[in-house]
Amino acid sequence: LNEFSLIDNYFKCRNKSKTSQVKLSIGDDAAVVSCPPGHELVIATDTLVADVHFPATVGPADIGYKALAVNLSDLAAMGAEPSWALLNLTLPEFNDAWLNGFSDGLFELIDEYELNLAGGDTCRGPLNIGVTVAGWVPQNQALTRSGARVGDVVFVSGYLGDATMGLRLYCRDVASEISAEDKDYLLSRLHRPTPRVALGQRLLGLVTSCIDVSDGLMADAAHICEQSNVGMEIIIDNLPLSSAFKNASKDIDDLNLALAGGDDYELCFTCAKEQVGSIEKIAQGFDLPLAKIGMVNEQPDVRFIDANGDTWETPKKGYKHFD
Ligand code: ADP
Ligand code: MG
Questions:
Q1: E-strand spans in 17-157?
Q2: Cα–Cα distance for residue pair 77/210, rounded to 1 Å
Q3: Model confidence over 44-97: pLDDT tens digits?
Q4: Nearest-angstrom CA–CA distance, 198 and 2
Q5: Could you tell me which residues are beta bridge partners of residue 302?
Q6: Ligand 1: residue whose CA is nearest its atom 27
Q7: Residues with CB under 5 A from ligand 2 (ion)
Q8: Residue 85, ligand 1, Cβ within 6 A
Q9: Looking at the whole model, is its pTM more than 0.70?
Q10: Which percentage of the chain shows pLDDT scores above 70?
Q11: N or C: which end of the chain has fewer CB within 10 A?
């Protein structure tokens, strides 16, 4: 089996999307794509490296799913509608079972979002998966990190810390007995994050800034603050924690997991007070909790306070590769 039949067998033949924006897909020297009139191209790329971003023992379907999910999450944070993807795959060996599993997981999301896998590259080397995704937003409407204003309300979608607690479970580092149901839930949040694509698009025109929480709320909320030249006060009692997370928690320090642990892929966004009602209606429509976790103010940086308004000291910062 050569490189070309590998591409055909595991990727090209599964590519169903006939999206009119991709005129030429896998098979030529490059893809040819267009952008709908009145829209702008939004592109994101993210690489997953074995034993850095996922334990090398994770199943191939989960790896394929997550490699695309984390990229779609970046498009979600911009409010974009995803359209096509590129896949750069470096594999240590040819392994049919692994490639089948990987392609199953990847195409689960490709099919769900009706994306076109427009191309990529395939090499031999240590396992490394690079995915690029592209989509569209109406001209000048992309959600950015830089628009938060003093007085805005800070929201976060879903629950924080589940993936990090899932990783702890995966590494068998939980003291408390937890139910099989809680365990499945936490592991699925680790291996199969949900990109909040529909939510991001729904927020267009309503919010002042948005980011996806990939490195922990503490680090990612700080990015909004830096780029918007504002500060935030986050009320720790308002942080959304799932019942599974609470059941698996060992002690109060586990709140750090919810703040500094990565891989949540929820959206953190700010909006003017007048929009809070609309945001709450959206939460009902999506059946997804959107928690009001704090306020934007002038004092730089993110501060965490408890219900009494006292400062809550946070020992750990978000994950950084070169620390
Ligand atoms: P070239 O040598 O011109 O770069 P390649 O052999 O790398 O050509 O790629 C041939 C075609 O297959 C191109 O359309 C490329 O985009 C596509 N392709 C290569 N690897 C992948 C992959 N892992 N997933 C999807 N498409 C791929
Ligand atoms: Mg190539």
A1: 22-24, 32-33, 39-49, 81-91, 116-124, 128-138, 153-157
A2: 6
A3: 999 999 988 888 889 999 999 999 999 999 999 999 999 999 999 999 999 999
A4: 39
A5: 232
A6: 120
A7: 121
A8: no
A9: yes
A10: 95
A11: C
